[in-house]
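fyi for ur records
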Amino acid sequence: MHDLPQQLVNGLILGALYGLIAVGYTMVYGIIQLINFAHGEIYMIGGFGALTMWLLLPGGTSLIVALPLMLLMGIACSVLIAVGAERFAYRPLRNAPRLAPLITAIGLSIALQQAVWAFYPDAKADRTFPQFEGGPIDLGAITLQRGDLFLIIAAPICMAGLAYFVAKTRTGRAMQATSQDPDTAKLMGINTDRIVVTAFAIGGAFAAVAAMAYGLKYGQVGFKMGFIAGLKAFTAAVLGGIGNIYGAMIGGLTLGLAEALATAYIGDIPGMELFGGGAWKDVWAFALLILVLLLRPQGLLGERVSDRA
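which gave:
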């Protein structure tokens, strides 16, 4: 375990990525108790939106200069798709049996994935994402990739901003009231439809930030990138206690740490040599989910699954 500090940092970075995506799952579930399985594709579209802005800029543009424009474009694309999905796919089914919006979400997920595959130029293969110039940054026993710096800065800012928004703003308090009792909130004059749209929009914006971080970290985006990332983020939301926005980030960090440590060290355990390495990382992530559900089905923060955030 001589490289434990490095693995812990790797796990926290990966977990922050999962946590940002998981916020979209948990906010929508907290408000209308819908598991939006299309959220992984909303994340993917944010990555392609950022890449599109990069391709539209003049050649030779510095990535530092382009970064804000790419982020805005990615957020705009993800929010547009998320709000459109709420308005045209989920809202008409608001009072339908739960199975109907669940199937709609799965269908929408496949439709969005195939739409990008069919219409985005050369999206059939992963597209190269711009990278920061320069090599890794050595900090003693820890090495950071330059692409990770965006996530390290963006994730705390996003979570702090969301915490302030939910706790201190009028819309945030209305969101809390709607999540606790939508009928009473409506009687109190709260426009619950607008609150639901706000939840989808915030989730889409967080997903776009995560997609931007993914592109900078791994140097590519692809039309299939939302599937596994979406499953991992949903796992993180359940681990933390789905419906709890703080639980989403804690669940993401827990999942990221478990994945990094299991990948690095499981193979060192006598008799477990065949189960180490990156090929088993998804297995250990979902094994952790099963373990937590068996021991603490309400998630790490202790909220019951049936409760709203």
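The two ends are 39 Å apart (CA to CA). thats all i got for now
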